[in-house]
Amino acid sequence: MGLDLIILGAASATPTSNQYTTAQLLKMREHYFLIDCGEGTQKQLRRSKTKFSRINHIFISHLHGDHFFGLVGLLSTFHLLGRTSPLTIYGPPKLKDIVLTQFRAAGTFTSYPMHFVVTQHKVPQVLLETDSYTISSFPLKHRIATTGFLFKEKTLKRSLNKAAADAHGVPVCDYHWIKEGKNWTSDEGKEVSNDLLTFDPLPPLSYAFASDTMYTPDTAEYVKGVDLLYHESTFCEDKNERAKQTMHSTAAQAAQVAVEAGAKHLLIGHYSARYTDKRQFEEEAKAIFAEVFAARELCQYSLLQSGIKVKSVVPDKDEK
Amino acid sequence: MGLDLIILGAASATPTSNQYTTAQLLKMREHYFLIDCGEGTQKQLRRSKTKFSRINHIFISHLHGDHFFGLVGLLSTFHLLGRTSPLTIYGPPKLKDIVLTQFRAAGTFTSYPMHFVVTQHKVPQVLLETDSYTISSFPLKHRIATTGFLFKEKTLKRSLNKAAADAHGVPVCDYHWIKEGKNWTSDEGKEVSNDLLTFDPLPPLSYAFASDTMYTPDTAEYVKGVDLLYHESTFCEDKNERAKQTMHSTAAQAAQVAVEAGAKHLLIGHYSARYTDKRQFEEEAKAIFAEVFAARELCQYSLLQSGIKVKSVVPDKDEK
């Protein structure tokens, strides 16, 4: 059990012949969430062998093209594949109009219901809450209205320690009370405390996505104590001024946010095409925050309570 | 001298992990014309090593996503590359609104002037005419308003036969009259006919793009005598009924149009993803029209007066 994050695109501004712009697939508690959708995201989803029908929620951070130009193509492909289950899209107010204008021009209406949830860019906002997780947005500081997204698992119920239950002579018909957290009383009136009959649930995990944004101490406040923080790092320190002008961050600033937030791990990405070697980002961030990974496309970052595991999601010789 | 056509995408409906939807780059008389622009076209242009700044005219056949979902991304990249020269986009009425809505949402205005020319889908229309070529649109028969495009070179001026001019004693200062088609008269009053002093220009070439469309005899009328006809062939004969329902063509129907038009060569494409082997299309078309090629992505089809040469535009080991 853990969170799996597949990086579909980690380049900024424009795709190049072998790099894609921002898109990520988060798998949390058996649910799939697509975060941003740069041009060609559907190609990367296919390469990562993702089942399209498992995606029911798409989150768009802002309306710069490198974060959503692949959306209408993906929605159109869902339609052509005959999807029928509802899809919810979370994003800035104008997103709905952009999508519907294109479907209308094609004279097409999707085979599935499409719901739009408008994100607020000035205050944090709970977007989706279930028994199992909460997903919210929070303001970022960029040239246009932009939000980050915070994905938080909820604590699961305690799970039965079957060996202990047997040892205390608990009959199977009482298991469901124990799983609800109740103590158990035997026919003889002996009470056994619930914590002797159950295991602690695994601590819940959390993931925060913050792109695009310049450094602001507010970000750390919004994602306090997060297990994994993805923070854009468009530039290295040599382009500190350029980062400021364009309202982007450097790798060092991303690391600074991770420190201030008390994050456990940091993933950086949204690289400017002027850097060919991504290690420079990693090194500059590492000088400030040790637990850093430089995002690589078509790699999966599996967040566990014990740490992070990284693996490629495509066979070595596959096209990227 | 000839027309070069690079196939950037030849798949229909949706891109797959290694195939792109419709886009073609035509090079005619030193000018570059982009025809349709499916998602990921900018990636394919990069792979074909095309200089983006040489594209000044983009033609969009219709507003089904597989023919234009890559357009706004490409326009955005032009902007990010600092383009300043004007760009003209030819397409259906709603295209302008679709493009501008997205730029407005990003708070961006392009660094270059963008002109939109609205195509008519009920009558043929000259879109662009210079001394060197004429480009026009013509109606196709599809589920929404769709046009084909016809690119016709004009006959060049006769070129000087320098050896003949020397033999007749023509002084250099009279060359320009001869190139204009005038006869030449010597100081002694001897007249030499222009055709003895000049070479015939190469016959002008023409290319027609017809996608998407069902079979209609009108298409042949619009492209009569064309040197190279690209005609969609979404299906093979086994899906003849499906072709009719969706208003697409089979390979045999594409070949039939080539016969009726008296085309010299036929290129077929816009393949349905249900066919893995493209040779089936080629074989079915060849039974009706011999000079057929099944379009392959990232291949260049060079149309010369003597025939067609095909070559890949990417090194063998490059990603596709």
Task: Give the name of the CATH superfamily of the largest domain in chain A.
Answer: Ribonuclease Z/Hydroxyacylglutathione hydrolase-like
Tell me how many strands of chain A there are.
19
> Main sheet of chain A: which strands, in order across?
6-5-4-3-2-1-18-19
Biggest sheet of chain A, in brief?
Answer: 8 strands, mixed
| Largest interface: pair, residues per side | A-B, 39 and 38 residues
- Helix and strand sequence of chain A: EEEHEHEHEEEEEHHEEHEEHEHHEHEEE
* Beta-strand content estimate of chain A: 25-35%
Oligomeric state, counting identical vs distinct chains = homodimer
- Ends apart, CA distance between termini of chain A: 28 Å
Number of discrete helical segments of chain A:
10
Shape field of chain A: globular
